[in-house]
User: Which sequence fits this backbone?
């Protein structure tokens, strides 16, 4: 909202620089987003008449202009072409200093001396127009030699651009800003009379024309309100004999400074009142209202109407949002035909025109939530709806209507008459609130030690009445006026008033204290483990990516995700309307992004949520299944499934998993076809049976991605064949839950102090037997004395035959309490050989 | 010329060709079969060339039949080619079978260089560390929320104009606009307070980092998906002074000893009194510069005393317990600290960017 300092001074004698005032406004929560100086640096500019325009030899962009600036002709060079001989223009003589400290000097261009400068509106910071020179032909009283500031009535001014918080409709007008500011600065706040406005605006205490008293308003128009629930107060006043013309110059200037275009005296008066007092009003041409009045009613379901912006609106039907009742308030003519959406937008049929002579002014109070719903559903936000949906002052209506009539009277001509009385239909409009504020409660919230008198003294200047009820820490009886709908009834209202106390006092002056409490802070085990995983992955050469949660159906189906997916009702990108169930598309896109920049040899990982629908909806339960997953894509040079397996070994060790196993091949579950059918597997482990879990936990998958999928992302080798891309995808909900994925015992096992003996065994084992099973067999056969088993060689070759391979293990035996003898070791060796040979159709090589 | 003697038996040609196609057993074979049945020297091609010498009438009839025949043959070729290609791919994949448990430690080459954590993670971790040091726990919650947790319990009833402060992604789950992607981490506050009331474990001193979603078109300063961290303290005797002190301690701990904070009034439905908090502009150290619009201050986040309506919705007695909450953007902190001109660099995952940190 743009508010000028001169307008604010209508209400209180504000002093101080623009920056001082804007700091105070900031500290009041009326945040100043911009400060604009207007009318400064134009004091030296005078009106001049163009006498002669001539070409300059060798120049086609500039011309020689001779002007009369009141004391004879003078020559300037000018680059603008928007004026002709005889025009009145703005002229800055040599020695003038324009806005921005721009000093005008004598200059020579193409051999022609310029004794000053003709100015555009923008150069003078009077308007945005910089296309041409400011032409003053239509300005009343403009004569060569006069000061521009006198002719235009310019007073240097400051315009603050203020962002008003959504809960402060009262501050969304000049009076409201002035009230807060005056309260803070300890200045008296007064709403000026219309004659004060005129005097201040025109600079002279001229008599102010007023409307004659007309007949009883009820004889001229009617108002019927059918729905007092949506519109708890509706008033109308009637002016007759109105001459529609321009507004007084000072009024038009204020509107312009506030960012509104002046239209005519009636519409401008309505806008002025809204900007000044915050009350939107709507003037109708009474002669264009069939039936000579208004009917306020609820829209029927499906009823249509065309609003001022020429859009056909369907009313009275609930929209998709929660809580939308589909109740719309319509303003109709007395015959029931809609002429506007109540509190939102009027209709074209009853607009004020040049020939309007009888004006009916609507000033009403609409229920904020109803306006909010209507405005949201129609996607129609106006100055009026924005104010009504936040809550206007039902008690401020009369003053606003009065001001409107007085402002129109300034220019509406001698025939003007104001009908006697107001058509006023009142239902259950908000009343002033009474709240007993306990100083103890205010201090408990603010950390202050304010007594009752201090609190009352801080609230009263805001337009509240605040009377201490007894001792200095007894409650204060506060009456909150209806222009502060943000203050709620007690007990919430006490907190609201505590904020008002703090605002008037000044947030920056409130005390500060570093609190302390006995409870220690810290991360949960899961959070610690997650951090460790990220560090381990960095150590494995993987960098952390952050990929999108929004995917297209095609992306998801290509990654073999199982529909139905969770769909976003209002996606940003139409095709990307589904929530990811897998991180495969996101991470492959990230790899592709890098590959396209010739840096495709990367390992990337991501930890994040994937989303699935709940199979059976439980109204009490979460609305969807969210799983935190860790996914790693291995696309560095030489990477393949084994890179992922190696990473998994490191991760399992870092987490201290007690046991786990790898099942060859992806399980027929989610995204299984996105994995290479013969080079990937599922990681499982036995849960903690003591904690009541019996089914094996699925920790995730490891291996390689399907080559066709990789090819579809363009990740191919020089020979055009898809790259081998390793993949590790873990369910952190399972992996980081020690009940589902038990950890090694915390008890220390002292390393044996006796020497160990190594035995190397190579077996020829059928391909179907996973190496891991051989190891399990070896461990069982090797007993407690087997300290470690390590696969150190795998060999396939013709000498061994088809479908088998040689697996070579190094077994290390050690006893905690003695040195093992050759006999001990020999026996263990034989036991291991026997066990493997019998269990796996294997032979010792 | 007598057309009967030259008119080829199109049916036979097709049968011959499709048989040949069916007999091919490798993609190699199908390539040569393809050349033989549709190439320049194929019977079909020869028949087509012969058309030139025919009567216009016959040419038309035969031309059409030959065209159809070619279509049939090409379709058969295509389908057989796909079949064989798929089979060969499957065989090739099967042949490349790898026993993942044949893992020989040390045989897989290690990485050439270490990886790098996302800036968001680095920033989040250091923020968490500061708050943990100040006695906060770290709490988390789901990203899909109900209207109640994201709005209702936070004193933002349906259709409330304040909802305009958050552009929300709604989900097609349940009633329209009943489920959504959380627009802030504040729902975690509600979960925490509900749990604490249920288990009788008040007080609460926690920060809540996490991913949030707002339907804003991404630009240099905004992402539709972003990260926030909030703090919540609910305890006896907690005041606005504690809030201001906590913000100041955090500011100096995280940004440095010469960076300070200040609060100014603001509106949030879930706190009362509410404030925006600003920190000394790190670029000009408070002198005033372009970054801070000459104010010397940079807006960082919002805060306030927990609104009694929020306490009411979770069943906490606002006369016994008071509390404060604050929140700000993790990504925004990263942007400030590393002077990232365009926030979108954070979601591009360009390794040249990641490797700098």
Assistant:
């Amino acid at each position: 909202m743009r508010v000028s300092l001169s307008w604010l001074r209508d209400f209180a004698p504000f002093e101080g620089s623009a920056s001082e005032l804007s700091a105070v406004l900031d500290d009041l929560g009326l945040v100043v987003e911009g400060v604009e100086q207007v009318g400064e640096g134009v004091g030296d500019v005078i009106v001049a008449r163009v006498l002669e325009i001539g070409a300059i030899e060798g120049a086609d962009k500039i011309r020689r202009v001779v002007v009369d600036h009141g004391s004879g002709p003078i020559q300037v060079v000018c680059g603008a072409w928007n004026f002709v001989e005889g025009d009145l223009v703005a002229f800055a003589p040599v020695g003038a200093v324009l806005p921005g400290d721009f000093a005008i000097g004598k200059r020579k261009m193409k051999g022609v001396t310029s004794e000053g400068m003709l100015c555009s509106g923008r150069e003078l910071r009077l308007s945005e127009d910089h296309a041409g020179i400011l032409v003053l032909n239509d300005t009343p009283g403009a004569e060569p030699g006069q000061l521009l500031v006198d002719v235009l009535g310019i007073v240097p001014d400051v315009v603050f651009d203020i962002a008003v918080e959504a809960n402060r409709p009262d501050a969304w007008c000049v009076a409201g800003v002035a009230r807060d500011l005056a309260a803070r600065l300890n200045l008296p706040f007064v709403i000026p009379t219309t004659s004060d406005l005129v005097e201040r605006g025109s600079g002279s205490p001229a008599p102010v024309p007023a409307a004659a008293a007309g007949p009883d308003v009820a004889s001229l128009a009617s108002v019927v309100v059918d729905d007092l629930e949506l519109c708890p107060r509706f008033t109308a006043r009637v002016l007759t004999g109105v001459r529609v013309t321009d507004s007084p110059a000072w009024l038009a200037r204020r509107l312009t400074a506030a960012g509104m275009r002046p239209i005519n005296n009636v519409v401008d008066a309505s806008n002025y009142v809204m900007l000044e007092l915050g009350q939107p009003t709507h003037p109708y041409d009474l002669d264009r209202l069939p039936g000579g009045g208004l009917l306020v009613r609820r829209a029927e379901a499906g009823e249509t109407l065309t609003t001022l912006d020429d859009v056909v609106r369907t009313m009275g039907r609930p929209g998709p949002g929660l809580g939308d009742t589909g109740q719309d308030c319509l303003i109709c003519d007395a015959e029931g035909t809609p002429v506007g959406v109540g509190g939102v937008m009027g209709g074209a049929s009853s607009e004020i025109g040049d020939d309007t002579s009888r004006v009916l002014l609507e000033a009403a109070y609409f229920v904020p939530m109803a306006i909010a719903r209507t405005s949201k559903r129609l996607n129609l936000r106006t100055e009026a709806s924005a104010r009504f949906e936040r809550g206007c002052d039902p008690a401020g209506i009369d003053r606003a209507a009065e001001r409107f009539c007085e402002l129109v009277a300034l220019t509406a001509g001698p025939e003007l008459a104001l009908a006697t009385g107001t058509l006023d239909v009142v239902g259950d409009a908000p009343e002033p609130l009474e709240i007993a504020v306990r100083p103890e409660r205010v201090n408990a919230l603010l950390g202050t030690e304010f007594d009752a008198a201090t609190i009352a003294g801080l609230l009263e200047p805001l337009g509240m009445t605040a009377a201490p009820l007894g001792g200095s820490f007894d409650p204060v009886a506060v009456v909150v006026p209806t222009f502060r709908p943000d203050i709620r009834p007690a007990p919430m209202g006490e907190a609201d008033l505590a904020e008002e106390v703090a605002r008037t006092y000044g947030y920056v002056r409130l005390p500060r204290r570093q609190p302390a409490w006995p409870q220690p802070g810290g991360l949960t085990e899961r959070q610690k483990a997650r951090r460790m995983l990220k560090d381990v992955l960095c150590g494995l050469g993987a960098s952390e990516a952050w990929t999108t949660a929004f995917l297209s159906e095609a992306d998801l189906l290509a990654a073999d995700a199982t529909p139905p997916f969770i769909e976003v009702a209002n996606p940003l990108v139409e095709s990307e309307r589904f929530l990811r169930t897998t991180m495969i598309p996101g991470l492959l896109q990230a790899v592709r992004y890098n590959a396209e920049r010739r840096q495709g040899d990367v390992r990337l990982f991501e930890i994040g949520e994937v989303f699935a629908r709940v199979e059976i909806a439980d109204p009490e339960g979460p609305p969807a299944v969210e799983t935190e997953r860790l996914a790693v894509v291995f696309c560095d040079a030489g990477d393949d499934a084994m890179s992922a397996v190696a990473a998994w070994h490191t991760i399992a060790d870092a987490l201290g998993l007690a046991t786990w196993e790898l099942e060859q091949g992806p399980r027929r579950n989610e995204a299984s076809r996105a994995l290479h059918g013969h080079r990937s597997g599922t990681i499982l482990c036995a849960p903690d049976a003591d904690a009541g879990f019996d089914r094996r936990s699925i920790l995730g998958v490891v291996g390689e991605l399907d080559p066709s999928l990789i090819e579809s992302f363009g990740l191919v080798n020089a020979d055009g064949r898809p790259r081998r891309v390793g993949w590790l995808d873990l369910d952190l909900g399972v992996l980081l839950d020690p009940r589902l994925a038990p950890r090694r015992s915390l008890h220390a096992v002292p390393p044996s102090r006796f020497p160990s003996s190594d035995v190397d065994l190579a077996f020829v084992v059928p391909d179907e037997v996973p190496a891991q099973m051989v190891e399990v067999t070896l461990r069982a056969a090797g007993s407690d004395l087997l300290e470690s088993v390590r696969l150190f060689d795998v060999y396939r070759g013709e000498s061994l035959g088809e479908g088998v391979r040689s697996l070579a293990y190094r077994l290390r035996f050690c006893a905690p309490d003695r040195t093992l003898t050759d006999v001990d070791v020999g026996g263990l060796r034989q036991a291991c050989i026997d066990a493997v040979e019998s269990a796996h159709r294997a032979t010792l090589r | 010329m007598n057309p009967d003697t030259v008119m080829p038996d199109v049916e036979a040609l097709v049968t011959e060709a499709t048989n040949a196609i069916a007999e091919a057993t490798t993609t190699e074979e199908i390539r040569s079969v393809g050349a033989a049945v549709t190439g320049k020297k194929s019977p079909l091609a020869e028949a087509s060339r012969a058309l030139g010498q025919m009567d216009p009438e016959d040419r038309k009839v035969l031309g059409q039949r030959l065209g159809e025949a070619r279509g049939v043959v090409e379709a058969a070729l295509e389908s057989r080619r796909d079949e064989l290609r798929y089979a060969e791919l499957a065989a090739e994949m099967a042949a490349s079978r790898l026993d993942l448990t044949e893992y020989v430690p040390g045989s897989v080459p290690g990485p050439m260089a270490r990886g790098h954590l996302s800036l968001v993670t680095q920033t989040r971790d250091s923020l968490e560390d500061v708050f943990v040091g100040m006695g906060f726990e770290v709490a988390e919650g789901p990203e899909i929320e109900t209207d109640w947790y994201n709005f209702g319990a936070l004193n933002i009833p349906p259709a409330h104009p304040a909802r305009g402060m958050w552009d929300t992604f709604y989900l097609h789950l349940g009633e329209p606009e009943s489920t959504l992607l959380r627009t802030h981490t504040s729902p975690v506050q509600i979960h925490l307070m509900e749990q604490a009331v249920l288990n009788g474990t008040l007080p609460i001193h926690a920060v809540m980092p996490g991913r949030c979603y707002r339907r804003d078109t991404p630009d240099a300063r905004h992402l539709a998906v972003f990260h926030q961290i909030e703090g919540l303290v609910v305890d006896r005797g907690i005041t606005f002074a504690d809030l201001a002190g906590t913000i100041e301690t955090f500011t100096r701990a995280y940004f440095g000893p010469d960076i300070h904070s200040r609060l100014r009034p603001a509106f949030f439905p879930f706190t009362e009194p509410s404030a925006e908090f600003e920190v000394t502009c790190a670029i000009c150290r408070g002198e005033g510069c372009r970054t801070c619009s000459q104010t010397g201050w940079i807006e960082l986040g919002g805060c306030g005393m927990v609104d009694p309506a929020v306490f009411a919705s979770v069943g906490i007695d606002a006369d016994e317990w008071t509390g404060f909450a604050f929140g700000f953007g993790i990504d925004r902190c990263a942007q400030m600290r590393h002077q990232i001109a365009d926030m979108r660099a954070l979601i591009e995952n360009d390794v040249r960017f990641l490797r700098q940190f």
About this structure: The radius of gyration of chain A is 41 Å.
